[in-house]
Amino acid sequence: MVNARSRTPGTDHRNPGTGVSSPASDGRKSTTKEPIIQEPEAPEPEATRRAADVAESARANRGWWDRNADEYQVEHGTFLGDDRFVWGPEGLDEVEAELLGPPEELKGRDVLEIGAGAAQCARWLAAQGARPVALDISHRQLQHALRIGGSFPLVCADAGALPFADGSFDVACSAYGALPFVADPRLVLREVRRVLRPGGRFVFSVTHPIRWAFPDEPGPEGLSVSSSYFDRTPYVEQDEQGRAVYVEHHRTLGDRVRDIVASGFRLVDLVEPEWPEWNTSEWGGWSPLRGNLIPGTAIFVCERD
User: Fold this and answer.
1) What is the crossing angle of helices 253-262 and 185-195, to 10°?
2) Other Cβ atoms within 10 Å of 134 Cβ, number
3) SS3 readout for the chain
4) Considering only CA atoms, which of 218, 212, 180, 153 is closest in space to residue 65?
5) Structural contact between residues 212 and 229, judged by C-beta atoms closer than 8 angstroms
6) How high is the pLDDT of residue 12?
7) Distance between CA 56 and CA 58 in Å, rounded?
8) Within 13 Å of residue 144, how many CA atoms lie on the same side as its CB?
9) d(Cα 24, Cα 78) in Å, to the nearest integer?
10) 8 Å CB contact between 218 and 289
């Protein structure tokens, strides 16, 4: 599941995550159809920066994804495909990146996808002969996974409390799922380590931390620093009663590395995808203009000893 929201209070915070156009050079088709259920429009939430703990973040983001899953899949389904493994808005595909390892070595392996959305990545993994399990906090997102189809298990659960026995998986992965939205990423990392077998690999992608210093805009206005990179105050969208309806958390690159190491992983690679020439799309604050100048995605490749 790939998503990004604006993190600049006072801007159009519904902008990111909408308006993607499919790259013309990609010949793959999606069977994604517009869902029947459409939620009525809600009042525009207020964007701010304030504290948000583990429970509030989980509650807000579960509700946000349930309410917005239909729109998300309609607007981004073509870009994501039904059975592609895309690491971020740049379009880096696991077919080319092989961050989980050579595809032929995935055959017969138990793989956990965290923050699976409509399980596009899990569907690709199944096609390689792996045994994926797709997990997401949003019931509505998983209904889209059912709609598209697949023979692998779907699990609705919080990534900070994985409902699996120790050593259940060989590999875990997350494309913009869970990690950007949790108040304490070490809870998730320790849970992932627990369910991985010795030697297991965990690869996850998040918004590149440097992006938090810039307005989340695709044009020239998104190229000037507007806030401190070191401000870890969460980005929160809240309703008229002050209740969070969406929360995203910022960690610096150093924070991410320390979280990974403190949770018992070894960081073996940090990938910052460059913007490819074929991708002329805009996805929220991601665009060719910005992508050619500053990184938009950070992918952490970790292993459990």
Assistant:
1) 40
2) 30
3) CCCCCCCCCCCCCCCCCCCCCCCCCCCCCCCCCCCCCCCCCCCCCEEEECCCCHHHHHHHHHHHHHHHHHHHHHHHHHHHCCCCCECCCCCCEHHHHCCCCCHHHHCCCEEEEECCCCCHHHHHHHHCCCEEEEEECCHHHHHHHHHHCCCCCEEECCCCCCCCCCCCEEEEEEECCCHHHCCCHHHHHHHHHHHEEEEEEEEEEEECHHHHHCCCCCCHHHHCCCCCCCCCCCEEEECCCCCEEEEECCCCHHHHHHHHHHCCEEEEEEECCCCCCCCCCCECCECHHHHCCCCCEEEEEEEEC
4) 180
5) yes
6) 32
7) 6
8) 34
9) 11
10) yes
Mean pLDDT of 222-232: 97
Residue 287 neighbours by CB under 8 Å, 6+ apart:
218, 219, 222, 281
| Residue pLDDT, tens place only, 145-201 | 999 999 999 999 999 999 999 999 999 999 999 999 999 999 999 999 999 999 999
pLDDT, average across residues 260-285: 97
What gap in Å lies between CA 177 and CA 136, rounded to an integer? 8
Q: Quick one: tokens of 65?
A: 């994804």
Query: Residue 82 pLDDT more than 80?
Result: yes
| Mean of the per-residue pLDDT values of the chain | 89
Quote the longest CA-to-CA distance of the chain: 52
Least confident of 42-46, 124-128, 169-173: 42-46
pLDDT-above-90 percentage for the chain? 85
Alpha-carbon 305 to chain mean position: 25
Neighbours of 110 (CB within 10 A): 19
pLDDT of residue 41: 66
Q: Provide, rounded to the nearest whole percent, the portion of the chain with pLDDT above 70.
A: 86
Contacts for 265 with CB less than 8 Å, ≥ 6 apart: 189, 193, 202, 302, 303, 304
Q: Angle CA(210)–CA(244)–CA(177) in degrees, nearest 5?
A: 50
